[in-house]
Amino acid sequence: xxxxxxxxxxxxxxxxxxxxxxxxxxxxxxxxxxxxxxxxxxxxxxxxxxxxxxxxxxxxxxxxxxxxxxxxxxxxxxxxxxxxxxxxxxxxxxxxxxxxxxxxxxxxxxxxxxxxxxxxxxxxxxxxxxxxxxxxxxxxxxxxxxxxxxxxxxxxxxxxxxxxxxxxxxxxxxxxxxxxxxxxxxxxxxxxxxxxxxxxxxxxxxxxxxxxxxxxxxxxxxxxxxxxxxxxxxxxxxxxxxxxxxxxxxxxxxxxxxxxxxxxxxxxxxxxxxxxxxxxxxxxxxxxxxxxxxxxxxxxxxxxxxxxxxxxxxxxxxxxxxxxxxxxxxxxxxxxxxxxxxxxxxxxxxxxxxxxxxxxxxxxxxxxxxxxxxxxxxxxxxxxxxxxxxxxxxxxxxxxxxxxxxxxxxxxxx
Length: 414
Prior knowledge:
Layout: E1 7-14, E2 20-28, E3 38-40, E4 45-52, E5 61-72, E6 78-89, E7 102-109, E8 114-118, E9 125-129, E10 141-152, E11 160-169, H1 179-187, E12 201-203, E13 207-213, E14 217-228, E15 232-234, E16 238-247, H2 250-256, E17 263-273, E18 288-295, E19 297-300, E20 310-318, E21 331-341, E22 348-349, E23 359-366
Parallel strand pairs: 3-11, 15-23
Antiparallel strand pairs: 1-2, 2-4, 4-7, 5-6, 5-10, 8-9, 10-11, 12-14, 13-14, 13-22, 14-16, 16-20, 17-18, 17-21, 19-20, 21-23
């Protein structure tokens, strides 16, 4: 973003007579000065500090810092980042050392792309990418980044700070699609399914289930889900899907191989504590929170299914543009899975648990598409994304900020 488009944010601290004496100015990518400052991973945290020394006695030094931590509700903050430097120090200031009037200093702090974090045994360290800010109402955990200006007064005198939360959003890109799908996106042609493009699809293990049809007879069906490769998708894009359903019962096929009967959801997982960096975690753990954040929708495929008594449907699942990107970090990770749930159709009943998935596949949600790739929706005109009653819509990082952590405070310490 060109420098001219950067938004300027201004904060100040007042004395007991409501006269401002400490000012902090930041420049960021936010759309408005009233929003929290927004930075991507390569952006410097740049701005200025100004102090009126006539209103501040006994100042020894002035510093600027960027701090970040993971905070679980009811627990102490686990700080993972602290970058600080002095902008003024009485000991190193050339004569005359006595400061007076209003003085201003520019600053620029660079955030690292990765940091070293200790392992579970506290002996081995692992490098992790800096996680994005995370703050949602009623969330059991938060990731908070803050800029803190501190006026240090020396021994036996309290320091004074002026701070603001900021939004840090590392840019992540989805992997490039296989050649045939990329060509379809580019040329506006139909997607080739898993039969014609086996390298372009990840075919999940078949899900077999039985049930009663109109309470008169038992039927058996098999459902196979194919997800477009690679399994990383940008927010605001559609996840392409193909579903193949087979059965020896034609009536069961007519009933269950229909767009409204197939239930595939995108599930978001917030994994807390020591299991946050592990590949395997229990959905039922007290440290794992999950919710549906997207539902797939389907339409009859134009491709002919291979074999008799087999139906194929094409579909997609829209990743909300407000979705938080996937990340793995000690104490808190955010992950996503596609999950096939038991079908639902009038006249069909089974002993399957409705909220227990039959097949799951982990996917990655990124902030941007692969370079040069512009995916598109293939839904026929008139097809709309379904509204699921259990859909938990997580709004964007600015609209749903938790003010307990995202304050513009000017009276507390770090």
